[in-house]
Amino acid sequence: MSGTVEKKLADLGITLHTPAAPVANYVPFVRTGNLLLISGQICLDAEGKMIAKGKLGADVTIEDGQKAARACAINLLAQLKAALGDLDKVQRVVRLGGFISSVPSFVDGPKVMNGASDLMVTAFGDRGKHARTTIGVSVLPGDAAVEVEGMFEVS
Fold first, then answer.
1. Which one, 32, 38, 50, 124, has least CB within 10 Å?
2. 4-21+28-146 falls under which CATH superfamily?
3. What sign does the dihedral 14-58-140-53 (CA atoms) show?
4. Torsion over CA of 65, 70, 74 and 75, rounded to 10 degrees?
């Protein structure tokens, strides 16, 4: 274990697994200067099982959506670790983009995204406070309920 961020995660019972490989023609992350952009991460657990499938507002509850968003955030952190070797190199969580598979009338996407945002703030403290966009979509890969992408300032 490298540093203080991973110790905070361990205290929460979170161990970062080997991140999932891309399933199409893209890379998991791109670094340009001091910015690291992480491709969208769906809500898979460490064993590759989907945390929540389906649509918010139909067959997925807000609470299950929040758990799914948290899983996406854990997957973002796993990709960060793979890119940087040490999460303490993250200077700031700049932005999270959340995609919520939902019925057209579902308006609580921001509540769902709090599952990801809350973990970033817990892990990084004030450096984890970020800009955010939450978008309702009709479908996500693998029928995932949530997908989250991220932008991070790194050293």
1. 32
2. RutC-like (3.30.1330.40)
3. positive
4. 20
What is d(CA 128, CA 53) in angstroms, rounded to the nearest whole number? 27
How does pLDDT run across 63-122, given as a tens digit for each residue? 999 999 999 999 999 999 999 999 999 999 999 999 999 999 999 999 999 999 999 999
Q: Are 127 and 93 in contact (CB under 8 A)?
A: yes
pLDDT by residue (tens digit) across 54-77? 999 999 999 999 999 999 999 999
User: What are the residue ranges spanned by the domains of the chain?
Assistant: 4-21+28-146
SS3 label, residue 82 = helix
